[in-house]
Amino acid sequence: MTLTGCSSDEPPTTAGQTRGGTKAPAAVSPSPKPTPTPTRTYPLSRTPATIPAVRTHEAARGPGWRPGPGGGVVVAKGSEALADEARLLAGELKLGYRGAVAARAGDVELALGTGGARESYTALTSGGRVRITGPDEAGVFYGTRTLKQAVKSGGAMPEGVVRDRPDRPQRGLMVDIARKHFSAAWIEARLREMADLKLNQLGLHFSDDQGFRIESDSHPEIVSSRHLTKAEVRRIIDLAARLHITVIPEIDSPGHLGAVLAAHPQLQLRDAAGRPVRGAIDIGQPASAEIVDELLKEYAELFPGAYWHLGGDEYQALVRRNPEASFPQLAALARQKYGPQARVQDLATAWVNDRAAVVRPLGKKPKAWNDGFFRGGVVRADKDLEVEYWTGKEIGARPPLEYLREGRRLVNVNDEYLYYVLGQPQTFVYPTGRRIYEQWTPFVIRGTQPVPRKYSSQILGGRFAVWCDLANSQTQEQVARGIAMPLRATSQKLWDPRKPGRSWQQFQELARKLG
Questions:
Q1: Per-residue pLDDT, 337
Q2: Which letter does DSSP use for residue 100 in this model?
Q3: Which CATH superfamily is domain 170-505 in?
Q4: Which of 41, 88, 207, 499 makes the best surface tag, with the fewest CB within 10 Å?
């Protein structure tokens, strides 16, 4: 008996031979198997290259997404409020906008969802399409900025999931358009630049000693010959709104009012010897409050945003060694209004509080520079005034911890990192993006040392500031070039203050690629 698989004693037969008297069938060759279709395998995707960098990217295998023929931008049903964001993205990527229809392969779909922090978004790239969702329009918009930059830097949006959000709610740029006239076109170009960097506030300091730069109906006599018309400002504000940027106006008072006082010299502060004090309005005169309040009310109608910057810094009456002796009329009024212990600083604090009381009913949250918040005194600055902290060197300035311990909320405008002062007067030097990128965070409010992280909830964000002290030292174009890298570094550290994953050289290369 032979076992299956063992060899036989008989010799092998060939075709046509018989075995045991039976003709053996001819051998049949097996049919060849079809050649399998090769399948492409993809490496794990890389994080999209953007400024600011995304917080998290869940890598996946796949081709990602790139704009191509037949692709379009759509909004999910119920998310028609995203039509403006969708149209903008479609134009930037040279795709069609198809409205609120079902997404198909090759499409980008925008959708509002529930859950998640304000301004956050999720971008899912899979199956040859991208879906960007967020709890609000701003978040979805920032997702479109990530997609736009990813395509520009790498040709495609990588496969996988991006989950992203800002670290701070206030992220911005401030421009001194009072000392130097900037055209509406220049400001609009900065808005577009800011939007791609996910910055959400533009401050316009439009009144100072050297100029008043926006058309006025209530006081046309104070307006500089070179200025923005209200029509131009409305176009700026409309563009900003479409880009999810709030424009914050600033009329600085009671100091820095030289342009107003040039037309109203009777309101200029004078010392005991009758000498005028540059830029300082006489806060003892009722007419001084009247003209400033008229301007606040006029421009509150023009600027629909939630914030108003009241200034409050560098009131020259308080620079004197003895303000009470130099300005006895103000000292007497302070004692009359606030008691025998009151001083000129109390009158100045009350001035800012009174201006805050004007803008609040107009729907504005008031802000003021930190050196307008004085230590001690009889009158205290209102608790809801947001502190725009820029210096520890001016009269009245205090260390950041003093404001934070009082429970005040603060925006970081640290002049040692974030001040771009034209002509580099005094001790200012043009800030470098590298120093911001490698050293600064929202916690570094004064000097180079951070405040404790336990105050994180009180630190609202930061702002890069352009000041035009020597206005003719740079052209508009030179300013734009000079602030480009510092602004990008500021954007990165406000979005995510952790140590960046890219070196400064890699960050510069990416910035050049993105334009």
A1: 98
A2: S
A3: Glycosidases (3.20.20.80)
A4: 41
Instruction: Check if CATH label 3.30.379.10 holds for domain 56-164.
Output: yes
Give me 214's structure tokens. 């926006």
**CA–CA dist 345, 378 (Å, integer):** 9
Residue 392 sits at φ, ψ, to 5 deg, of -115, 10
- Of the candidates 302, 301, 313, the one whose C-alpha atom is nearest the C-alpha of residue 253 is 313
- Tell me the pLDDT band of 2, cut-offs 50, 70 and 90: very low
Residues of the chain with CATH 3.30.379.10: 56-164
Provide CATH 3.20.20.80 ranges for the chain: 170-505
SS3 (DSSP) at 459: strand
Helix, strand, coil distribution of the chain in percent, nearest 5: 35, 20, 45
CA-to-CA separations, 76 to 108, 164, 223, in angstroms, rounded: 10, 20, 48
Q: How far is CA 142 from CA 87, 246, 256, in A?
A: 14, 15, 37
- pLDDT reported for residue 20: 40
Cα–Cα distance measured from residue 100 to residue 110, given in angstroms and rounded to the nearest whole number: 9
Structure tokens at 363: 């729907």
pLDDT per residue over 96-132, tens digit each? 999 999 999 999 999 999 989 999 999 999 999 999 9
Predicted TM-score of the model (pTM):
0.91
Q: What is the pLDDT of residue 33?
A: 54
DSSP 101: S
Which helix (H) or strand (E) segment holds residue 280: the answer is strand 276-281
pLDDT tens per residue, range 329-379: 999 999 999 999 999 999 999 999 999 999 999 999 999 999 999 999 999
Instruction: Decide if pLDDT at 12 tops 80.
Output: no
Report yes or no: 232 and 184 within 8 Å, Cβ to Cβ: yes
Residue 315 φ/ψ, nearest 5 degrees: -75, 115
Show the tokens assigned to 328.
Answer: 């006895």
